[in-house]
Amino acid sequence: MRFFLITVCCILIFNCEDKQSEKKSPTQIIDSTQVKKESDIEKTDTISEEKKEGFLLTKDNAMEFFLQYEKENKENKVRIVTDFGNIDILLFNETKFHRANFIYLTKKGYFDNTQFYRVIENYIIQGGSTDERDVMRKRRFIGKYLLPTDTKRGFRHDRGVISMPSSDIDNPYKLASPYEFFITLRDVYQLDGDYTIFGKVIAGLDVADKIANVDTDDADWPLKNVYIKRVELLN
User: Fold this and answer.
1) 3-state secondary structure (DSSP) of residue 142
2) b/e per residue, 82-121, with b = 16+ CB within 10 A?
3) 164, 98 contact by CB (below 8 A)
4) How far apart are CA 117 and CA 115, in angstroms?
5) 40-70 per-position pLDDT tens digit
6) Fewer CB atoms inside 10 A, N or C side of the chain?
7) d(CA 46, CA 27)
């Protein structure tokens, strides 16, 4: 009997110790569970956002996509809205992939709050990029791709044309960076054959001249940011 009582007491003591131990640890368990859930939520949000955005453009699917897109989206006039005024652009149907690309990015709202980040008086203004993270995020959800040059349509780099610069990656064939563009402010025929002219300014070339006259640093970046507030369709 005495042995039985001792055994029962030991069991009760061990049970009490286990309960006390359980009371000390739930905060750590809950915290680690919360971290895991928060991480899972972030991953889920990212996946959901990617699904919401649809497919991504890549080097493998971009040309096929724009071949179909240009047939269904015939708009060819856009307005670049800035604090200096508006610049209206006619996009050439002859350079169909580049026209379709610009229309696609316009409808996606990509150009909103980008900048004219390189300006040279009486030469060019170059826009469509920025060092702000929100624009880089937009690119992430549109895709990473380049466009081939299309330079044999008879267009020349006259004053007032819009052309597409080549990508800054290792790019011996001067494939075009689809997110950026430049507008020429004088005849620059030395650029012919290297960069694709895909439109021209039909109104607001004086606005482009004003932008080119702002103060810049040694890298031709305006000392005061020149924002493209938005690009909108005109037709």
Assistant:
1) helix
2) bebeebbbbbbeebbbbbbbbbbbbeeebbbbbbbbbbee
3) yes
4) 5
5) 433 344 334 444 457 899 999 999 999 999 9
6) N
7) 29
